[in-house]
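User: two proteins, same treatment. go.

Assistant:
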Amino acid sequence: MSGRRLPPLGTLRAFEAAARLRSFKRAAEELSVTPTAISHQIRALEAQLGLRLFERETRRVRPTAEAERLYPVLRDGFDAFAQAIAELTARPRRQALTISATLSFTAKWLVPRVASFHAAYPDLDLRLHASDDPVDLHAGVADAAIRYGRGPYPGLVAEPLIDNRFAPVCSPRLDLRGTDDLRRHTLLHSEWRHPTQDSPTWRGWCLQAGLDGLDVDAGLRFTDESHAIQSAIAGHGVALLSLTLVADDLAAGTLVQPFGPALQGHPHWFVHADANPNPQVRALRDWLRAQVALGARD
């Protein structure tokens, strides 16, 4: 098979644009060149083909019969080029998914695990919305949320995710041996943003532990539970904390639970707005369940 003998691509592009737009000026604008450059390209093509392709008129150009025969072939060819290139270079549109949770849950539970979500779902971009105020899921602020509480949540679908217990934790450097050792250490308090009668507190823990005479109102107070956790890790005192949030710290040995009892708290719930959630929300729910199950086995 002999090689194709074709005019330069630039002259063919100039011709196709001029024939389609019926104007050298508009063809020049489309191709980001000057009208003079278009005119030179067309003359070069006419010279190579030995054909007159345009009748030059005052305000426009008119393709000749030969040009009208050539134009649809080039038009279809360039359209086919454009489509093939678009298909080859197309990238699947990434989907974004936003989950809202409290500041402490985001920092202590979600952030350490988010890499595993991206490994499991590389085409989904997970965005973490950290706020201690519940967001309006119907307004689209987030696709789903993790909420701590008694439930139910009217107008939302809520699935229990993590059972919660609260117990004294501290740095191993404090060397606590028994509950009486609490009297010589600072109590760290995490204040509840929306406290209820059964919110875990040092007073409630002392009642369950049968410990009298401990000044449960003294100590350091934090409005953010993650700050109380960091203070406990630093050895500033003993904190009554969610064992869910400090599970990684307990496993790493930066915190210890020196003794019980553990107070039963409310669950963490996976909450979303749609009774028939989209595949992205279902993927998030499945991943969260798997992470909880993984933690339960450790």
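Protein 2:
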Amino acid sequence: MTHKTITPGGTFVVEPRRLSKASAELRARGFGEITLPPSTETAEKQASRCTDCGVPFCQNACPLQNNIPDWLRLSAENEVREAWRVSSQTSTMPEICGRICPQDRLCEGGCTLNQSGWEAVTIGSVEAWIAEQAWRNGWVEPIRPLAERGESVGVIGAGPAGLAAADRLRCEGYQVTVYDRHDRAGGLLIYGIPGFKLKKHVVQRRVDRLAEGGVEFVLGCEVGKDVTLSELRDRHDAVLLAMGVYQPRILSAPGRGPDSTVEALQYLTHQNRRDLGDAEQDGWHEARDKRVVVIGGGDTAMDCVRTAVRQGARSVTCVYRRDRDNMPGSAREVQNAEEEGVVFEWLAAPKALLSQGDAVTGVRAQRMALTEAAPGERRNIAPVPGSDFDIPADIVIEALGFQPEPFAAHEPDLKLRDDGTIKVGAVSFATSLPGVFAAGDAVRGASLVVWAVREGQDAAAEIDRYLKTRTQEVAA
């Protein structure tokens, strides 16, 4: 990618602005991060492009409200340690958000340069670079509360919301225990997001910092099965529900049987476990030499198609019912996937699964057309008569999103919304149970990691107020 600048003489000069990526051929061979880390000179030059707007649209577009202009200016002035201090004030995971946030839809999309027709400052890469400098130089301080508090908080879920809350609560001196069903902490950061977007050691060092700072992790513990919510309420002075949403939405089409498709998260988890060095297990899915069809258009679908490429699939096709402009996933991820050889069937919806015996052989799809949108609403889709076509497939991966798992059975007095998410107060994270709070995808539904971090931090602040005042807005 290039960017135009104007010299004092009035002529245009075209110079590179985007960070370099490994070639598509090279990066498809493995699961390393595809973006090449910037040099100090490159990061400082990129940061210096910030125009220090009177109204920082980049900050307004960031769910964490990061002080982006401030740490960009400090980075440009070679005050990287101070830039780190400012960056870490608003985010417990800047090195993670800098890597995986869809900046094109958030801060960089709101950048004034971008709005003016120029390329945005590469805010995410600078954020990640600042954090890496901090880790490398020992600026990431251990958690050392000024004073220990006697109250304890139980956090259910070791994903981004739970980890962010645990960080803030432990810094305030609370005794924090995090419970998670998996054998590692990190949630989707560890098992859902591929290594080519987020190296696992980046997550693990955050977990290690929490553990070294006094946060206790109880892993392999499923609430409702190994321990009840009532027991945790008796054990702790406050409880935060941050378990995310993991139940996949299921394809409804003729020919779909119990073993005819693969769930996206299951598929990604198997590969992430390989990357983490776990021993291969029976039933782990791999796409080598197979024709792969992924159904869906979000970031999880992009993770699946790009994982299949790296596993050596013979062909990879993504089927999405709307067009490119209406795709919910990051435009950058779509571009990366196309560079790596993924074929996109836009405006196509699965109509049936084809099989021979017990083996899937393909997907029968139908072309769709976008309808006119009602005021303030998204354009809908309608099938095009007589437009059926078949896509050969050996593996069909469902990436249709996630919904909450049944939780009410564990605690009948916990109020849920109609969609199964946890109901909280109008302006709070308090649930219908006194002393119990909820944040992240368990409340919002499937969303971005950055929103989970934001809500985890905010919920921690509310729990802090509750434990100090014993007042709470209970969800009606």
